[in-house]
Amino acid sequence: MKKNPSIFWLVSYPKSGNTWCRVFLSNYLYGGDAPVSINSLKDIPFASGRGLVDLYYGVNSSEMTEEEAWDFRRELFRIIHENSEDIKIIKAHEAYTRNALTNFFADEITAGVVYVVRNPLDVAVSLANHMNEPVDHIVDYMADEGFRMSIPGEKWKSQFPQSLLSWSSHVKSWTEEYPGTVHLIRYEDLSRNPEREFSRLLTYLNQVPDENRLERAIQFSSFSSLQAQEAREGFCEKFPDSKVFFREGKSGSWQRLLSPDQVTRVRENHEMMMKKMEYI
C-alpha cells in the first residue's frame, strides 16, 4: 500500500527564523521538563547537513561530487519517509527549483511546507553577523540570482551547497511557484504573538495544540534561553568566524544598523516582494 506523504519541510532564507521554529518544535514535539539542547536537534534534521548522510550511509560525503551528494540525499529522504510512523519535519534553506538534479522536495513524500519569511532589511543585518562579512557584501549576495552557501574548496564543509537565488526569488519560489500547500509565517508576527503563530503552525502540522506544552516550548525556545545555551555550550551551526548565532532576535534593528544607502539598495532590489510581504 502506498504510504501517505509524511515529510513537512521547514524552509526559509537564512537568518529568517528557521532555527527558532526548529527549536520550538523540538521542545514541543520531542522535549520534556528541560530545554532540548540546541546542539542536539536530530529529531528535526537539517537537509543540507553532511552528518545525516555520513551517519546513515557510513560514508565520508566530503569525497562525493555534488551530483552524487544530491542522489544520496534524495534517496535518504525517501527512506526517512518510508520509515516514519508519524510526521517528519526537515529543515531546509534551498530555494524551490524544478531542476531535476536539485529538487528533492518530491510530491510523493511531502505532506506540506512551512515557509518563514523575514524583512530583508533585518536579514541583511543578521546574515552579515552570521557570515562575518560587511553588510554591503550581504546586500549584494541577497540580490544575486546565483547566490549559494557552503561552497567548498577541495572538500565539502559541514553542509552541502545550498542554492538560494536572490532573496526575492527565494520567497517567490516557495510562495508563488511551489505547487503544494505552503504555511507562511512572518518572523515579525511570530515575534509579536508567538502563542498564536506557533499554535497555527502546530495545527498545520496536524497537531492539536496543548496549552501547557505550548507555553513550556515557547519558554524553552525564547531568545534569552537560546542565548544562554549558546554562551554555555556554543552552537554547532554557527559559522566559525561569527561571534554568536543568536544575536538579538528582534525586528527593526536595521533602523539603527544600516546606512541610508544600504536601506535604499535593499528596497530597490526587492521592492515588489517586500510589498507583497507587507514590508513596504
Structural commentary:
It is a single chain. With 280 residues, the protein is α/β, with parallel strands linked by helices. It is built from 12 helices and 6 strands. The strands form 2 sheets. Strands 2-1-3-6 form a 4-stranded parallel sheet, with helices on both faces. The protein has a two-stranded antiparallel sheet with strand order 4-5. α4 packs across α5 and α6 runs parallel beside α12. The longest helix is centred in the N-terminal third of the chain and has 18 residues. The model has no long low-confidence stretch (mean pLDDT 89).
Short description:
By secondary structure, this protein is α/β, with parallel strands linked by helices. Helices cover 46% and strands 10% of the residues.
Question: Structural class, please?
Answer: alpha/beta
Ranges with pLDDT <50 over ≥5 residues? none
Q: Which radius of gyration do the C-alpha atoms yield?
A: 18 Å
Count every helix, treating DSSP H or I runs of 4 or more residues as helices.
12
List the main descriptive attributes of the protein structure presented here.
about 280 residues; alpha/beta; two-stranded antiparallel sheet; 12 helices
